[in-house]
Design a protein that fits this description.
single chain; 5-stranded antiparallel β-sheet; 11 helices
Length: 482
């Protein structure tokens, strides 16, 4: 499907267009020559156009899966800042680190309080041979905690206290007030650890970032004409049955820009105006929708042609935001398109159809990224407007099927710009033909019976006047003779 060397898919070869491709040439469209369909000259560009030169590509700021390709370095007190926000740090961390912290938080708390219980029993003398549980009745010894033999017994009692298991064999007594205080403290700490870790795991499992895995962006963005205007389009879709409420799509252009003072802004962001099917960027997101950016005088792509796309370095970041219907959380899906992923002269294939057997609209996601080639002017929207003279009825001229080719003159291999009057005359002729075709005319023309037998011109008013004068003269002469 992309075998045409003029198709934007050939830009994946990472080479600039040959020099002969930069010459002006018309492209046939359905048997008719379409005006304005040509490669513009590049005399205004100072970049090199050597044959076979490697095309420079912009490194992505946003990856295709939506992750930001940003590396942060040389942050002062980085560990301290991340530890102060431990909850967010663990939620953003990978699962292996979260599970490791989850496990260590319980094991370390058990061991820590087990050591405290061992110290309490050791200082009170419960670990002496005469004061062990088998000898307590004979020696009449009352320990701080019943049935404590060694550190292992203290560890088991720590687990029972923290999780309120209570097997019934080990309990605290009134002998040691500090043991009662430690038991209360461990119960409180255990509840806090459980709430903290369960909250982290739950937030990590239910965070709306995973909802973006079922939100799709088309692999390529396309440029073609719609209603007589060049448009940049890409497609968004949702795989789940639960919808995204209040979905909105916006796009930003990241490219370098030089200010009037000479300052170079290497990552200047420009908002692109989007709409879908005549509406704004707020979507009723029930099936895949094609987002459209009209390349008009307010668009940053107004002066960009098909050849310029191969040479420019920019990135289009697209963002889909909305509320998840099932959870009520806000989610955001991101993707981006670089110059190598913009297909000039292509259009997305329809993928929504009505299935009579299943009694519903069927979406064929196998055609989600599929495009078809269409006849599209390779010049910029600015040059296209200049060609048509910004006429309000230029759409009818383009699609009337009676268009005339623009005359292209060459002098020693260089294009000689034609007179604007010639283009104006062509436009007037086409417009006259179109208006004549819309005029209501009678189907049958009636002529007088002797119209084709007579050699005289019945349409001449002078001949009729001469006939009437001759008749009047003959009448006067006959009257005088009488």
């Amino acid at each position: 499907m992309h075998a045409d060397p003029e198709s934007p898919a050939c830009r994946e070869e990472a080479h600039l267009l040959p020099d002969e491709w930069l010459k002006v040439k018309t492209v046939p469209a359905n048997g008719n020559l379409s005006p304005g369909v040509y490669y513009p000259t590049v005399s205004k560009r100072s970049r090199s156009h050597r044959h076979g030169a490697t095309r420079r590509t912009r490194r992505r700021a946003i990856l295709k899966n939506g992750e930001c390709n940003i590396l942060k370095s040389r942050i002062s007190q980085r560990r301290l800042r991340f530890l102060q926000d431990m909850f967010t740090t663990l939620v953003d961390a990978q699962w292996r680190w979260t599970l490791l912290v989850f496990t260590l938080s319980f094991i370390l708390s058990w061991l820590g309080f087990a050591l405290i219980w061992w110290l309490i029993a050791f200082t009170h003398g419960d670990l002496e041979v005469d004061h062990l549980p088998p000898m307590q009745e004979s020696s009449n010894w009352k320990p701080c905690v019943f049935n404590i033999y060694d550190f292992t017994s203290c560890f088991l009692f720590s687990i029972e206290t923290q999780h309120t298991i209570g097997y019934g064999s080990r309990t605290t007594t009134e002998e040691c007030p500090k043991a009662i205080f430690i038991m209360c403290l461990q119960s409180i700490v255990g509840v806090m650890i459980q709430a903290f870790m369960v909250g982290i795991v739950f937030a990590k499992m239910t965070r709306p970032k995973h909802r973006t895995q079922t939100l799709l962006f088309s692999k390529y963005a396309v440029v073609c004409q719609r209603d007589g205007e060049l448009c940049l389009m890409f497609r968004v879709g949702d795989l789940r049955k639960s919808h995204i409420i209040g979905a909105s799509v916006r796009a930003q252009l990241i490219r370098s820009r030089t200010t009037k003072e000479g300052e170079l802004l290497s990552h200047y962001q420009t908002e692109l105006e989007l709409n879908a099917d005549g509406c704004d960027s707020n979507l009723f997101f029930i099936w895949p929708i094609t987002m459209v950016h009209r390349i008009n005088a307010e668009s940053p792509f107004y002066g960009v042609s098909a050849a310029d796309v191969l040479q420019e370095r920019f990135e289009i970041v697209v963002i889909l935001e909305g509320t998840i219907e099932s959870t009520g959380q806000t989610t955001q899906a991101r993707s981006s398109y670089t110059t190598s992923e913009i297909m000039w002269g292509h259009r997305f294939v329809p993928l929504v159809s009505y299935n009579r057997e299943r009694q519903g609209y069927e979406v064929d996601y196998s055609k989600f990224d599929e495009t078809s080639q269409v006849d599209t002017p390779l010049c910029s929207a600015k040059e296209l407007d200049e060609f048509y003279g910004n006429q309000p009825d230029r759409r009818s001229i383009v699609y009337s099927g009676n268009t005339l080719p623009r005359e292209i003159l060459y002098d020693n291999g260089k294009e000689v710009p034609s007179s604007p009057l010639i283009n104006l005359a062509d436009r007037l002729v086409v417009d006259a033909i179109r208006r004549a075709s819309l005029t209501n005319r009678p189907s049958i023309v009636k002529y007088p019976p002797d119209y084709f037998n007579s050699h005289e011109d019945h349409s001449s008013s002078s001949s009729e006047d001469e006939k009437t004068k001759k008749k009047q003269g003959s009448r006067k002469s006959s009257a005088k003779a009488v």
